[in-house]
């Protein structure tokens, strides 16, 4: 077997292994399930909460009534001062359950889709400016 072919097989195995880790099959079923990507859901999105600021913050509790919801976020680093931006989703009814839904450094933005009714709050850790919108599908 040539070195190129062996390298290609290793790369394919690595990619398949990465996909298996990210399929959510090993997650606790009590947790809120989510995915990152484009907004392709059918229905109307209704605003639940919006959070803006700079620095560490714990949001007020928000209630999700629908089974599908999303969190869109954007963070902007000060010129020459990129910092970590971390957002943790906390379940008010089950304080031991939490999910790190964002962990990036510097200027970035994205969208996270989630499923599961309940009462939640976010913990934001950063020195950067940010905006977070929470919406549910009805």
Please explain how this structure is put together.
This protein is mainly beta. It has one helix and ten strands; from the N terminus they run αββββββββββ. It has one helix at residues 3-21, and strands at 33-36, 45-54, 57-58, 62-64, 68-76, 84-91, 98-105, 108-115, 118-125, 129-137. The strands form two sheets. A five-stranded antiparallel sheet has the order 1-8-5-10-2, with no helix packed on it. Strand 6 (84-91) and strand 7 form a beta hairpin. The longest helix is centred in the first third of the chain and has 19 residues, at 3-21. The protein is globular, with a radius of gyration of 18 Å.
Average predicted local confidence, pLDDT: 79
Task: Please identify the structural class as seen in this structure.
Answer: mainly beta
What is the CA-CA span between the terminal residues?
56 Å
**Which regions are unreliable across 5 or more consecutive residues at pLDDT < 50?**
1-33
Number of strands: 10
The helicity comes to 10-25%
User: What is the gyration radius calculated from CA atoms?
Assistant: 18 Å
Report strand %. Answer: over 45%
Tell me the number of helical segments per DSSP (H or I, 4 or more residues long): 1
Record the strand order, biggest sheet. Answer: 1-8-5-10-2
Along the chain, the helix and strand elements come as HEEEEEEEEEE
Give the biggest sheet. 5 strands, antiparallel
């Amino acid at each position: 077997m040539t070195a190129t072919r062996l390298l290609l097989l290793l790369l394919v195995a690595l990619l398949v292994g990465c996909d298996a880790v990210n399929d959510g099959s090993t997650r606790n079923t009590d947790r809120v399930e989510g995915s990152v990507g484009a907004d392709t859901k059918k229905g109307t999105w209704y605003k639940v909460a919006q959070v803006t600021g700079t620095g560490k913050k714990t949001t007020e509790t928000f209630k999700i009534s629908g089974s599908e919801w999303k969190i869109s976020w954007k963070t902007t680093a000060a010129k020459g001062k990129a910092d970590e931006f971390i957002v943790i989703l906390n379940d008010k009814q089950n304080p031991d359950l939490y999910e790190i839904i964002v962990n990036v450094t510097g200027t970035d933005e994205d969208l996270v889709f989630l499923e599961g009714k309940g009462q939640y709050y976010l913990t934001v850790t950063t020195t950067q400016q940010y905006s977070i919108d929470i919406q549910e599908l009805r």
